[in-house]
Specification:
The structure holds two protein chains of two kinds. In chain A, 29% of the residues lie in helices and 19% in strands. Chain A is of the alpha+beta class. In chain A, a hairpin with a 2-residue loop joins strand 6 (174-179) and strand 7 (182-187). Chain B is α+β, with helices and mostly antiparallel strands. Chain B has two domains: 5-81, Beta-grasp domain (Ubiquitin-like (UB roll)); 90-168, Orthogonal Bundle (DNA polymerase, domain 1), CATH 1.10.150.120. Chain B has helices spanning 27-34, 90-98, 107-120, 126-132, 144-157, 167-171; strands at residues 5-12, 15-22, 53-56, 59-62, 75-77. In chain B, a hairpin with a 2-residue loop joins strand 3 (53-56) and strand 4. The model of chain B is unreliable at 176-181 (pLDDT under 50). Classes of the chains: A alpha+beta, B alpha+beta. The interface between A and B is medium-sized, with 27 and 27 residues. The complex binds flavin-adenine dinucleotide (FAD) and FE2/S2 (inorganic) cluster (2 copies). Residues 42-45, 47-52, 62, 64 of chain B line the site of one FE2/S2 (inorganic) cluster.
Chain lengths: 335, 181
């Protein structure tokens, strides 16, 4: 690993100021992604600004508005094991619990999970100067592409690696950001940057900007949510396909549906075609099946990943069924 | 001490340790190179094997992905810290009794991960043991004996007098690692 300066500021403003000054410097949460990329030389920040020791940036709290806030340096393990979050944002705790391994979850943070870089082996290998690293070619287009994107894969074939991103989008969360010019709040839907807009990044954060936390409304009395993924091994693996679903019911009718995936496209993707099939309809297994079928609409698989087309249909369907089942259980609960 | 060296201080296996190290070194490097504790192993260096696991403030984490700079004043425990004046830790004894280590490369990481599990849960089920250890790869044992050894150590720590399986039971184990005619 190349040498770098290391700063451990005590507040977010100092962190943002330090990051804004040295070009290419990076904030650090748990370091579980950043340090691997620094070891391989893909990232060579002159300065690493550690957010981990900033007081107040970690933990789960309830705001005056009734919304829940999860601090940026809260660990994934803390989210996964949080009993209250499991009641009000099950899709998020499920997504956290299936992330990586217990040892990664003990250190990896919410902010770092959202901003982690893609796992594409061409991107992570210094020998391939792929388009994402400033070159001319996406090597995955013609190369080994078993784990790559089947949607929106025109310029770049990465998949977004974050489990928490689709879950937070299903919750319609807001991402809170602090930077050299102050603070702002970004709806999670507007946080992502398509490769066609700027291939060098996956999100809208500018130099010096850091996530301070995320917030979202708790699930209501007729809401159910779920996160499912399919992977090759029970532990360790990134999702081959995944789905985060939140359904709001009025009686038997689906009032609102949010369905988001990440492991099949360069940035998290909301599947509005599937949502449309559910919305305003009386829920049934057949309806979930039809919505699942629609999940593969517009897919453009590569040589080695056509299997994902079938998997995404099943995964979306099963996640919808699970979310609906949970909504039913909940509405039977004493209010 | 060269220009890029820093001096750090943390509590290592119960004793305050002050040590100079290159400022960009990971905790794993500092433990092995500057602290002279080679029990914690170098594996993938990418968070994918778990053999570098140590406890920081009692929590099992991957020392290959922790910057030593971040460990100032924290309590760090490595496999070398398991043995006490009374002898080997019950986990170490159980691993030896049941043959839960073969090449032993994964063992230091597994022992400290298991120690953290037992500190939080004195009576884990085998599913809970498997889940807690699901970030620690073992290329040799097939995991079965590791789970059994953690279970045995937990029982002994609870004060239960659990008999060891007989040699024939051990050898005839369907998931054993050596094939027997
Ligand atoms: C074996 C293995 C399996 C894995 N499987 C999965 C999986 O299935 N699903 C999944 O989602 N992830 C998976 N991961 C990735 C893991 O979840 C991430 O490494 C982790 O979430 C990153 O969090 P961190 O705090 O360590 O981030 P860091 O490594 O500290 O940072 C990651 C990136 O985000 C930036 N960053 C960090 N914090 C902030 C902030 N607050 N604001 C702005 N930028 C920030 C950093 O500059 C860096 O670029 C896996 C990792 C490993 C090693
Ligand atoms: S050396 Fe493999 S996880 Fe650290
Ligand atoms: S005993 Fe050899 S890797 Fe586990």
């Amino acid at each position: 690993m190349k040498n770098f300066d290391y700063a451990r500021p005590q507040d977010v403003q100092s962190a943002a100021a330090a990051l804004g000054k040295a070009k290419g410097s990076r904030p650090k949460g748990g370091g579980t992604d950043l340090i691997t990329l620094m070891k391989s030389g893909v990232l060579t920040p002159p300065l690493v600004v550690d957010l981990a020791s900033i007081p107040g940036l970690s933990g789960v709290s309830r705001l005056e508005t009734g919304h829940f806030r999860v601090g940026a340096t809260t660990t994934i393990a803390e989210v996964a094991e949080h009993p209250e979050l499991a009641r009000v944002a099950r899709v998020l705790t499920d997504a956290a619990a299936t992330t990586a391994t217990p040892l990664v979850r003990n250190r990896g943070t919410v902010g770092g999970n959202l901003c982690q870089r893609p796992r594409c082996w061409y991107f992570r290998n210094l020998d391939y100067v792929c388009s994402k690293k400033g070159g001319q070619t996406c090597y995955a287009a013609e190369g080994e592409n078993k784990y790559h994107a089947i949607f929106e894969n025109v310029t770049c074939n990465i998949v977004h690696p974050s489990n928490l991103a689709p879950a937070l989008w299903a919750l319609d969360a807001t991402i809170h950001v602090a930077g050299p010019t102050g603070e702002k709040s970004i709806p999670v839907a507007d946080f992502w940057v398509r490769p066609e807009e700027d291939i060098s990044t996956e999100n809208v954060l500018e130099a010096g900007e850091v996530i301070t936390g995320v917030s979202f409304a708790p699930e209501g009395a007729s809401t159910g949510s779920a996160y499912h993924e399919v992977r090759e091994k029970q532990s360790y693996d990134w999702a081959l396909v995944n789905a985060a679903v939140r359904l709001d019911f009025e009686g038997e009718v689906v009032k609102e549906a949010r369905i988001v995936v990440s492991a099949v496209a360069p940035i998290p993707l909301r599947l509005e075609a599937c949502e449309k099939i559910l919305k305003g309809q009386k829920f049934s297994d057949a309806l979930a099946e039809a919505a699942g079928k629609a999940a593969s609409g517009g897919a453009t698989p590569l040589r080695d990943n056509a299997y994902k087309v079938h998997l995404i249909e099943k995964c979306v369907k099963n996640t919808i069924l699970d979310a609906a089942r949970r909504a039913k259980v909940r509405s039977g609960e004493p209010r | 001490m060269n220009a890029d060296s820093v001096t750090g201080s943390f509590v290592l296996n119960g004793e305050r340790k002050t040590v100079a190290y290159p400022e960009h070194h990971t905790l794993l490097e500092v433990l092995r190179e500057e602290c002279g504790l080679p029990g914690t192993k170098h594996g993938c260096e990418l968070g994918e094997c778990g053999t570098c696991t140590v406890l920081i403030e009692g929590v099992p984490v991957l020392s290959c992905l922790v910057l030593a700079r971040q460990c100032e004043d924290q309590a760090i425990e490595t496999v070398e810290g398991l043995e006490s004046a009374e002898g080997l830790h019950p986990l170490q004894v159980a691993f030896a009794d049941l043959g839960a280590a073969q090449c032993g490369y994964c063992t230091p990481g597994i022992l400290v991960t298991a120690k953290a599990l037992l500190a939080a849960n004195a009576s884990p089920t085998s599913a809970e043991i498997d889940e807690a250890l699901s970030g620690n790869l073992c290329r040799c044992t097939g995991y079965r004996k590791i789970t059994e050894a953690v279970d045995l150590a937990a029982a002994r720590l609870r004060g239960e007098d659990r008999a060891l399986p007989s040699l024939s039971e051990l050898c005839g184990h369907p998931h054993g690692d050596h094939s027997h005619e």
